């Protein structure tokens, strides 16, 4: 049995496979119906409208519907797309046992404990027939897959076969009036639509299940006390063929396998049994220790079964479907139907070689598992699981017509050729490899370096050995380990490249690519099962999953090549053709389009001539390709494919191609795009494009500042006039300030009514005549200037260089630029054409920068004055939006020879992508990701105590350098474990300000403060440790265990100190004081501190006259062998006093004889057997009423929240 999927739930009473999708319905005893995707193991949906157990479910074959029936006597029809129950069919008077859709007609068949079977029309929602005849519960009923028959089983010990042909004819629309009249007459005279064809009697107990064979006239039935019977029928009668005995309890269900000639039965005796349908022999038995089986489903199309039991269900196969094959040049040897077959790729000729299995073997999963071929000796080595693992060696005669010699057999769980005439056999029990010759004689024995459970070919004389946690390459001659690779999962298949330089290690859902010596290259995780794989001629690994053919590049990137209807097993990849075997062992050739991954491979290997050739000749398109090129730093390549102007604009900005960006912005003509163009042009230092972009958006404030830094004072003075015309006082003042025109500033302030400011400005800048005039106007309100201080003049610095662009970046020409230009122009170009702008040739439709018009500011001013004279009724100045701006003489020019380099990925982003630890995410600045990780791992919701630590982690992993006063600071990433020998291209992980050694030092200081009686200080130290641990990273698994142990230690101290401080606050409640002191002694403290707790509790209880309790604490204190003599003497005195009066004056909520834990919030004992909830981080325990609150011990996590556990090391991820 090969288990593919399993669930844990309430008892599963009904199952149904979807015929096309990898879905299964499971109806539970609790009344819930679950819809699962068994290929990825996810719960898709739940349906819970039934009241009571749901015993039957069934998918419709073509519609998005399923039907269910339960103990509430109801049949419900559901639409799984809308997640709604469409309608309910009422009519049964007792439990509904099974329901089923007809494969062709709109019928639903239902069986019930009311001793009837009903056929419903789900379109008209009516009952079209009631089948009566059973005189006990009808346990099941089902349609024949092809004929107009129904079979039913009942506890009246009979199986009945019903003929429904008349009902079918009645359902069809009559062809003419005569037939319609005959139908009406038959209805008037109670014509019977369904008749009993056979009554099968032979069971001695009630029958629980009966089912038709999908193709043959056979019926199988299962009854109480373990009876399974096989029946055959013809047109006139039905009779018993065989009886299968073996089950020790009631048979719950029994069915024929859809693909194989076998019968599968399940029983309440906790077993699944497989029987031969023709010979009646028991083939195999599978048992579970604790679960009885209740329901069985067989997939109608593929080799899958499902069974439901007391605690869930599982989906499984009875036999492995992967064919055993071996590739040899242009030919393929493979096993099919107990024969070895030969397939030639070039001629597609398929022929049978010889039989490889003895006929009559009645056992499952005994077909060949692996096949190895020696081309020079023409020998085949076949391994199977028969008898715990065997191999068979065949020598194929060169003349295929000759008789094949008898095979040579041997024991071994793995066998593989390692040389021309040598093969290796693994003895798993001794971890030895036996090297044998073609006579099956042992030539050499070698002990393996690891306890291997499988071996694979790894080159001549070498073996790849697999264990649970690693694989190694072992040289059998030199007895040396050539390579080793740690793996966290079991490798199932090994696929070598054609040149033996790379190897793909395939597990259940993971692919690891490694070198010839097992040097790790990349790993690829899939959500569904990986089925097979092969290397193509370019070094790309092509593999298949259940649903797709995919590729894996050498750097670990993957993508989908083709979608599959059914799984296939790749045997060879040649060019654009994939040769494969399907599950029926048929050879198939599938043509694929390899353009996408060949293009990506060329980019990866920097073969830019191939890239350019593919760009010219291939139909590469699609958003995914654009996104890929952007992600990999080739936006200029993506720019060549795009026609949408908005996408072209974004790509042009990213690649630094200003000319294309200007052309796209002109076509789009939106303010946001002009603004972004101005930002990029300013970054590149192209001031003329910046000016053009600001003019298009009429952004006069930015234009003013641009003219200031470029020294264009003429245009700046014109902008001041425009602001004056528009009555923009602030604009006037700013422009006057930029120009250094003091008189204009004084005039603007005076006109705006700010006479004191105007007076001060004139006085400071030496305009005495203007200042005197303003003083007369101000009169007594003349502001006084501060005495003894020298005023500083507010004057702008004079521009050193006026106008023109300034080159901020100067880089080499783009990788593809020259090649594509010459390619698009047809090869040779002369020198004049080489100076023409253009990164990508004619296809890019660049903007003619030489003809681009920059607006003259004077034209804006003239137009404004004219508009003011023409129209005074509008109340003033018309904005410049409607002006036709004349061109300026100096046109901005864009140089396309140099492009900006592609911006690299920030180090913080690299850290964030590489790590799944919260501390490293916080150091990278990804606070949201860090908080999500902590919430998922530890249930943390209160992040206020962690805020300062997040900021410390971020600031501690970054530094900043200042080169010049006018240039921005340069951020530097501080990496953990950096050295001068480190590669500059490989980024390490961030340096962290918190480490485990700091916590150990803090722990010692906390111990010291506790011993000194400074409990508040000790509590603050221990709480700081507890809140820092989630942001600590360690290296090894051993350190992880130390961190988890530290969490428990600190938690105990925090809880104990909180209770002790609470006790000291209670002055008027001696009973509660005694209880808290007693609880403190149950915290797991260090021995010196535990003695102090015992002494404190003893003292409190003795003073309160609770002599018996005080004596208990005194005895506990003496058991610790106190080193302080005064403590021991006092304890002995208390015991002597208590011996005279062993009673308690007050009753405490404390019983030291009954084990308990302390609630971290209410400080009450939770005795063994009582319900409690825990903090997912610090594991403090609480009473159930505290669930959902913030933990009062760690002050971080939510009590009772689901969490995956503390993750503080990369070794835990691996």
TrEMBL record:
GO terms for molecular function: structural molecule activity. The keyword Membrane applies. Residues 813-1214 form the Coatomer alpha subunit C-terminal domain. Signal peptide: none annotated. It is a peripheral membrane protein. Keywords: Cytoplasm, Cytoplasmic vesicle, ER-Golgi transport, Golgi apparatus, Membrane, Protein transport, Repeat, Transport, WD repeat. WD repeats lie at residues 47-82, 89-130, 131-164, 200-241, 244-285. Residues 340-582 form the COPA/B second beta-propeller domain. CDD domains: Coatomer_WDAD_alpha, WD40. The coatomer is a cytosolic protein complex that binds to dilysine motifs and reversibly associates with Golgi non-clathrin-coated vesicles, which further mediate biosynthetic protein transport from the ER, via the Golgi up to the trans Golgi network. Coatomer complex is required for budding from Golgi membranes, and is essential for the retrograde Golgi-to-ER transport of dilysine-tagged proteins. This is Coatomer subunit alpha. It comes from Arabidopsis arenosa (Sand rock-cress).
């Amino acid at each position: 049995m090969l288990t593919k999927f399993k669930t844990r739930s309430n008892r599963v009473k009904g199952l149904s496979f979807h015929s096309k999708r990898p879905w299964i319905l499971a109806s539970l005893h609790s009344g819930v119906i679950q819809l699962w995707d068994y290929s990825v193991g996810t719960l898709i949906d739940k349906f819970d409208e039934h009241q009571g157990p749901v015993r039957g479910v069934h998918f419709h074959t073509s519609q998005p519907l399923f039907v269910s029936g339960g103990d509430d006597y109801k049949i419900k029809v559901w639409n799984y797309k809308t997640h709604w129950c469409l309608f309910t069919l009422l009519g049964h008077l007792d439990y509904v046992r099974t329901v089923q859709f007809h494969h062709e007609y709109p019928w639903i068949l239902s069986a019930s404990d009311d001793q009837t079977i009903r056929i419903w029309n789900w379109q008209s929602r009516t009952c079209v027939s009631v089948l009566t005849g059973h005189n006990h519960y009808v346990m099941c009923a089902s349609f024949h897959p092809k004929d107009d028959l129904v079979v039913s089983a009942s506890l009246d010990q009979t199986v009945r076969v019903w003929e429904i042909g008349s009902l079918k004819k009645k359902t069809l629309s009559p062809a003419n009036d005569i037939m319609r009249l005959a139908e009406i007459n038959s209805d008037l005279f109670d014509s019977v639509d369904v008749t009993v064809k056979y009554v099968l009697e032979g069971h001695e107990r009630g029958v629980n299940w009966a089912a038709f064979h999908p193709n043959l006239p056979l019926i199988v039935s299962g009854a109480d006390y373990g009876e399974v019977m096989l029946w055959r029928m013809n047109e006139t009668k039905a009779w018993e063929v065989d009886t299968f005995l073996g089950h020790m309890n009631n048979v719950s269900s029994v069915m024929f396998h859809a693909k194989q000639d076998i019968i599968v039965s399940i029983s309440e005796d906790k077993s699944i049994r497989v029987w031969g349908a023709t010979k009646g022999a028991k083939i195999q038995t599978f048992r579970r220790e604790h679960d009885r089986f209740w329901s069985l489903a067989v997939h109608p199309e593929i080799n899958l079964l499902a069974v439901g039991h007391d605690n869930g269900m599982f989906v499984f196969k009875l036999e492995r479907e992967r064919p055993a094959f071996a590739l040899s040049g242009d030919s393929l040897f493979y096993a099919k139907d107990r024969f070895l077959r030969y397939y030639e790729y070039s001629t597609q000729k398929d022929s049978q070689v010889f039989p490889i299995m003895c006929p009559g073997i009645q056992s499952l999963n005994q077909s060949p598992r692996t096949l190895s071929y020696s081309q020079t000796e023409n020998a085949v080595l076949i391994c199977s699981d028969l008898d715990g693992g065997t191999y068979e060696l065949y020598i194929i005669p060169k003349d295929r017509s000759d008789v094949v010699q008898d095979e040579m057999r041997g024991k071994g769980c793995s066998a593989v050729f390692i040389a021309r005439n040598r093969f290796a056999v693994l003895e798993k029990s001794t971890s030895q490899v036996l090297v044998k010759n073609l006579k099956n004689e042992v030539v050499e024995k070698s002990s393996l370096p690891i306890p291997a459970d499988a071996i694979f070919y790894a080159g001549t004389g070498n073996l790849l050995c697999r264990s649970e946690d690693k694989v190694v390459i072992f040289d059998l001659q030199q007895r040396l380990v050539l390579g080793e690779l740690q793996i966290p999962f079991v490798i199932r298949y090994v696929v070598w490249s054609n040149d033996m330089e790379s190897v793909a290690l395939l597990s259940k859902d993971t692919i690891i690519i490694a070198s010839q010596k097992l040097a790790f290259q990349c790993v690829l995780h899939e959500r569904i099962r990986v089925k097979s794989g092969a290397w193509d001629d370019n070094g790309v690994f092509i593999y298949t999953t259940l649903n797709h053919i995919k590729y894996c590049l050498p750097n670990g990137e993957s993508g989908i090549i083709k979608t599959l209807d059914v799984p296939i097993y790749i045997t060879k990849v040649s060019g654009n053709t994939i040769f494969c075997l399907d599950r029926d062992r048929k050879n198939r050739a599938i043509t694929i389009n390899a353009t996408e991954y060949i293009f990506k491979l060329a980019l990866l290997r920097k073969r830019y001539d191939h890239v350019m050739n593919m760009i010219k000749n291939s139909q590469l398109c699609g958003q995914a390709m654009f996104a890929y090129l952007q992600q990999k730093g080739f936006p200029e390549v993506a720019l060549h494919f795009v026609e949408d102007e908005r996408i072209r604009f974004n790509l042009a900005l990213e690649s630094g191609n200003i000319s294309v960006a200007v052309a796209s912005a002109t076509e789009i003509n939106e303010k946001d795009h002009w603004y972004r163009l101005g930002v990029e042009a300013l970054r590149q230092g192209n001031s003329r494009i910046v000016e053009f972009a600001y003019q298009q958006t009429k952004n006069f404030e930015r234009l003013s500042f641009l003219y200031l830094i470029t020294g264009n004072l003429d245009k700046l003075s014109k902008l001041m006039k425009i602001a004056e015309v528009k009555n923009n006082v602030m604009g006037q003042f700013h422009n006057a300030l930029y120009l250094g025109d003091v008189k204009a500033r004084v005039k603007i302030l005076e006109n705006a009514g700010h006479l004191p400011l105007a007076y001060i400005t004139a006085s400071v800048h030496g305009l005495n005549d203007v200042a005197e005039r303003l003083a007369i106007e101000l009169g007594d309100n003349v502001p006084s200037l501060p005495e003894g201080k020298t005023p500083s003049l507010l004057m702008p610095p004079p521009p050193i260089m006026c106008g023109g662009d300034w080159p901020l970046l100067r880089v080499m020409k783009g990788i593809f630029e020259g090649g594509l230009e010459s390619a698009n122009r047809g090869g040779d170009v002369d020198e004049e054409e080489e100076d023409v702008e253009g990164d990508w040739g004619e296809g890019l439709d660049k903007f003619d920068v030489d003809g681009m018009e920059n607006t003259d500011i004077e034209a804006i001013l003239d137009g404004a004055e004219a508009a003011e004279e023409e129209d005074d009724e509008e109340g003033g100045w018309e904005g410049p939006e409607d002006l036709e701006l004349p061109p300026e003489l100096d046109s901005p020019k864009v140089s396309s020879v140099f492009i900006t380099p592609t911006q690299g990925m920030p180090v913080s982003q690299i850290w964030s992508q590489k790590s799944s630890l919260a501390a490293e995410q916080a150091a990278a600045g990804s606070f949201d990701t860090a908080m999500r990780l902590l919430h998922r791992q530890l249930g943390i919701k209160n992040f206020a105590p962690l805020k300062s630590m997040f900021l410390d982690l971020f600031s501690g992993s970054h530094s900043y350098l200042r080169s010049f006063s006018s240039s921005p600071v340069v951020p530097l990433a501080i990496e953990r474990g950096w050295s001068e020998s480190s590669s500059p291209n490989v980024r390490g992980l961030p340096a962290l300000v918190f480490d485990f050694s700091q916590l150990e030092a803090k722990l010692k200081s906390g111990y010291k403060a506790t011993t000194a009686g400074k409990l508040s200080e000790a509590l603050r130290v221990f709480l700081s440790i507890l809140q820092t641990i989630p942001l600590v990273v360690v290296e090894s698994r051993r350190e992880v265990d130390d961190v988890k142990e530290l969490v428990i230690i600190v938690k105990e101290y925090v809880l104990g100190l909180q209770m002790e401080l609470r006790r000291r606050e209670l002055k008027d409640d001696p009973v509660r004081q005694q209880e808290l002191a007693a609880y403190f002694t149950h915290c797991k403290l260090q021995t010196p501190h535990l003695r102090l707790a015992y002494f404190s509790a003893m003292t409190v209880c003795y003073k309160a006259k609770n002599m018996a309790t005080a004596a208990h604490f005194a005895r506990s204190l003496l058991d610790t062998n106190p080193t302080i003599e005064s403590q021991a003497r006092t304890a002995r005195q208390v015991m002597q006093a208590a011996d005279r009066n062993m009673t308690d004056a007050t009753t405490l909520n404390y019983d030291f004889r009954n084990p308990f834990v302390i609630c971290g919030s209410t400080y009450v004992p939770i005795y063994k057997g009582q319900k409690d909830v825990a903090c997912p981080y610090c594991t403090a325990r609480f009473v159930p009423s505290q669930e959902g609150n913030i933990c009062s011990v760690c002050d971080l996590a939510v009590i009772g929240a689901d969490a995956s556990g503390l993750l503080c090391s990369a070794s835990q991820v691996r």
